[in-house]
Design goal:
Chain lengths: 132, 132
DNA sequence: TAACAGTATGTAATAATATAACATTTATAA
DNA sequence: TTATAAATGTTATATTATTACATACTGTTA
């Protein structure tokens, strides 16, 4: 069960928009879409995004500068994330694979570094785009 | 052995700078550093960076919008990359671990997607920063 | 309730990152 | 040589993100 965070007004507006979109959204596209709700400035968007990432309700797709609603029930923070990204249609899915996440969370090498977080992005062609 | 690409003038200037720096560099920091060599505009930098990424001489650290020289002898293209990033000192190393790269290159799930490329970024504290 | 701390908001300005469009030049190869 | 691809030069502009400062809200505790 995901901890219930009481989202603030702006956080809720922005989370709902991203969640309903079903895919990744970019900050200025979000801004455009919430202007009718009174959110007028980039900073208002980025602040809400920062908080939503922090509590794991959304994740940032780094290679796309975009934000997607968490598709796992278990992400309380954005600290172990994996995505598949179609390079043709830009469809993005969060990968939820216990073996993969265990493998990566336990990964260590001889660098002496203690890893506390990772982000993995796979690229390729999705089913639809492959068959064209 | 890495295929010998005959880098163009701008590509060589920019690769040498990044390589000698020993760490990740940002595009506009690169621009500042090569202005004395006649490279005056952002686009000249970005074009060289694009090409260098394409042939695997450098990789982009997506979470940092920065570029680092390939530290493996084997990357002919930037299509299977893994990095460790210290969140304190921002030191970045390319991870070269055969088991990890095999595991990820062979990864597949039931999404029907064919993965042809991945990028993995680990975060944590490096040896030095941990012991402070 | 009053005082406080922490979180969130509003607003303007600006910084940092990246690309579009167009003209010209250089390298490679048929 | 002629054609083609790759690289360069230049200006302008688009996109992404943060700084700085003022104000308001929310929950806790004296
Ligand atoms: Zn998630
Ligand atoms: Zn697709
Ligand atoms: Zn490499
Ligand atoms: Zn460090």
């Amino acid at each position: 069960m995901q901890k219930e965070h009481n989202l603030s007004k702006n956080q809720k507006i922005i989370f709902d928009l991203i969640d309903k979109s079903g895919g990744p959204m970019k900050a200025y596209s979000i801004l455009f879409n919430v202007q009718k709700k009174g959110i007028k400035a980039p900073l208002q968007v980025y602040r809400a995004l920062d908080k939503l990432v922090e509590i794991g309700k959304i994740h940032k797709i780094e290679s796309r500068n975009a934000f997607i609603a968490c598709q796992n029930s278990s992400c309380q923070v954005s600290k172990a994330t994996a995505f598949s990204i179609c390079e043709n249609c830009e469809n993005v899915s969060e990968i939820s694979n216990l073996k993969l996440s265990k493998y990566l969370s336990n990964f260590s090498d001889n660098s002496g570094m203690k890893y506390s977080k990772y982000n993995l992005e796979f690229f390729g062609l999705c089913k639809k785009c492959k068959s064209k």
